[in-house]
Design goal:
The chain has one domain. Helix content is about 35%, strand content about 15%. The chain has 7 helices and 7 strands, in the order H-E-E-E-H-H-E-E-E-E-H-H-H-H. Helix 4 packs across helix 7.
Length: about 260
């Protein structure tokens, strides 16, 4: 997985917008617990909240379900947010060494503010200028609900990538020995990208695809810049410039119920 250039990031963002209508997104990020056989004398380091032994696969995924980069080998008890912060991609993002453009206007919003390029994640990730997450809690305004819908629609790419990976390479169903788990998972991720790009399969996208999870109430975290970026995106998604007509059909705006979940993977 070669390092990306400025043009690569722009192409990833344009592909995300074309497929999910979420602009300035340069990747969907999430963690997957990879089951391993119980290591001898490891205590609770590899025992995760799902009650099995695992290592964490942190993946950053493009809109075509290919991995941009992965971080493999963190203890199963580690959180997605802490692993991302300590990973190479997280450290480079924090120190502005990823080679991404500083910011650009959102589509059809030339007279508005320039927004940074962002990763989209779930509620487990800390909010920052370059990492967006859903609004927590259930008492949300229409604007915030639409924002959550649009963000989750983009974030589903990483969920589906993990689903494709686990179903293609059956070793993920049985458990890997600790000695070989890191190299095995990395090899599967590389082969996953190769297959996605070379087997000739093209997935047809529709405006009504979804693979959403309920947004659970969690403690709000993040800095002022990240909050401001999220609020601008939320305002943009309900404006004539950034709104799409079908977004209001996907949710009962008079209730607190989440969108219907449809499994695409």
């Amino acid at each position: 997985m070669p390092e990306k250039t400025e043009n690569d990031w722009v192409n990833i963002a344009n592909d995300f917008y074309g497929r999910t209508q979420f602009s300035n997104s340069i990747g969907a990020v999430d963690g997957k617990h990879v089951r391993i056989k119980m290591p001898t004398g490891s205590g609770s380091l590899f025992y995760n909240y799902k009650h099995f032994f695992s290592i964490l696969l942190l993946g950053l995924v493009a809109a075509n379900y290919c991995f941009i980069t992965v971080d493999v080998g963190a203890f199963g008890k580690s959180s997605d947010s802490s692993v991302f912060k300590k990973s190479n991609i997280g450290r480079k993002l924090e120190s502005n060494q990823l080679g991404i453009l500083g910011s650009r206007p959102l589509p059809n919003d030339e007279n508005g503010k320039c927004m940074p390029f962002v990763f989209v994640g779930d509620e487990a990730f800390a909010l920052s200028e370059h990492v967006l997450r859903p609004y927590p809690n259930r008492n949300l305004s229409v604007q915030q609900r639409i924002y959550n819908y649009r963000l989750t629609r983009a974030r589903r790419m990483v969920e589906c990538a993990f689903g494709i990976l686990a179903n293609k390479w059956r070793i993920f169903q049985t458990g890997v020995t600790l000695q070989f788990c890191d190299s095995t998972v990395k090899a599967c991720c590389i082969l996953h990208n190769f297959v996605r790009r070379n087997d000739g399969f093209q997935l047809e996208y529709t405006l009504y695809e979804s693979n959403f999870e309920s947004i659970q109430a969690t403690e709000t975290r993040g800095n002022i810049k990240g909050k401001n970026v999220g609020e601008y995106f939320a305002k943009y998604f309900t404006s004539p410039h950034g709104g799409v007509p079908w977004q209001y059909d996907k949710y009962d705006l008079e209730s607190d119920l989440p969108w219907e979940s449809i499994d695409l993977c």
